[in-house]
Amino acid sequence: MRITAIREISVPLQGNLSNSLVNFAEHTVSLVAIECDVRRQGRPLVGYAFDSIGRYAQPGLLRERFIPRLLAAAPQALLDDSGGAFDPARASAIMMRNEKPGGHGDRAAAVAALELALWDLNAKLRDEPAYLTIARHAGRAVDEASAPVYAAGGYYYDSGDARQRLRQEFQAYRDQGFGKFKMKIGGAPLAEDLSRIEAALTVAGEGANLAVDANGRFDEAAALAYARAMEPYALRWYEEIGDPLDYALNHRVAQAYGGAIATGENLFSLPDVNNLLRFGGMRPGRDILQMDAGLSYGLTEYLKMLAAVEAAGFDRRQLHPHGGHLINLHIAVGLGLGGCEAYPGVFQPFGGYSPQCALGGGRVRPTDAPGFGLEQKPELAGPIAALAAR
């Protein structure tokens, strides 16, 4: 068994929305396909994946370094000991040949896209959904083939009544079956953001159903001012307070704020996560860790992060992967994590789930389609067809 072709394209995100720091109108995502020589129904099996949402595509890194390394590898070097499946860990080691430690950045996402495509391909070789392949690899049984889910939205709009639009947006999510929500803060003055939070709570019902995300905007003074002002709301969590590598700031807010804090989506390696656990003040039993396999070298590295988190006294249910898409849904279900987010109205064509996924009771269930089920998502039909044509 061997890889016969690898293709990649950069797909633009649809829409024009902003958080406290970033406008996503120019953002792109790398979509990749890994084809092998195993055929089903007359066609070669293809593994698809992408590098998650919130960073730019990495076409240069993929074309110049990581795809050529995989294609140049001896076929047996990419297989597991049985020879009947690909070994994502071995593939990752080959992709990282001659790469210096540190400086993770965009290369972590480029490697992740290809590594995750191998997980999709392995699940298709077994003709099973990816969450089962992931669970088996991790030595777990899947007791509940669904995960808790919340709707992420509440961005800053370029016009109109912000409070009214926020209420309408969250009501639409509630009508779809979501019971928990997340909104953006930090892109307006504190008083205005508090007013927006109160508008969101008219739909969410209570603070335990609403998280807020500052997207790394705050310095210490602003972070603590927001913490003091928001504490009476008893929110679900206070996310990405300051720069993701400013562990001292995170620690100081954790000491001052009685509610839960959340971070980790912008940490791309095991050493980064170890530093957060050592120096960031994160509290077992309370705080939330949001590392994203699609931005951090793939599931191989994510499993190492999970082991470190549990060794530090955290429960895996404190992990809620960032990203709001099908790949992280399968990871959350397969590993028994605390839940996942969804982008039901934004970040198309990647955000949210396929129509066949069952949503209800605050949980979402992936389908039984082989792999991650990306082919079932109508919005991805065009990009997948464009990728196949390359």
What does this structure look like?
With 390 residues, the chain is of the alpha/beta class. The protein folds into two domains: 3-127 and 381-389, Enolase-like, N-terminal domain (Enolase-like, domain 1); 138-377, Enolase-like C-terminal domain (TIM Barrel, Alpha-Beta Barrel), CATH 3.20.20.120. The protein is 37% helix and 16% strand. Strands 4, 5, 6, 7, 8, 9, 10, 11 and 12 form a nine-stranded mixed beta sheet that branches. Strands 1-2-3 form a three-stranded antiparallel beta sheet, sandwiched between helices. α5 (162-176) links the parallel β4 and β5. α1 (59-72) packs across α3 (105-126) and α2 (88-95) runs antiparallel to α3. The longest helix is centred in the first third of the chain and has 22 residues, at 105-126.
Kindly estimate the percentage of residues that lie in beta strands according to DSSP.
15-25%
Low-confidence stretches: none
What's the number of helices? 12
Second CATH tier, the architecture of the largest domain: Alpha-Beta Barrel
Q: Can you summarize the main beta sheet?
A: 9 strands, mixed
SSE-based structural type: alpha/beta
What's the CATH class of the largest domain, please?
A: Alpha Beta
Say what oligomer this is.
single chain
Rg, please?
A: 20 Å
CATH topology (level 3) name of the largest domain: TIM Barrel
Strands, count: 12
Average per-residue pLDDT, rounded, comes to 95
Terminal Cα separation, in Å? 23 Å
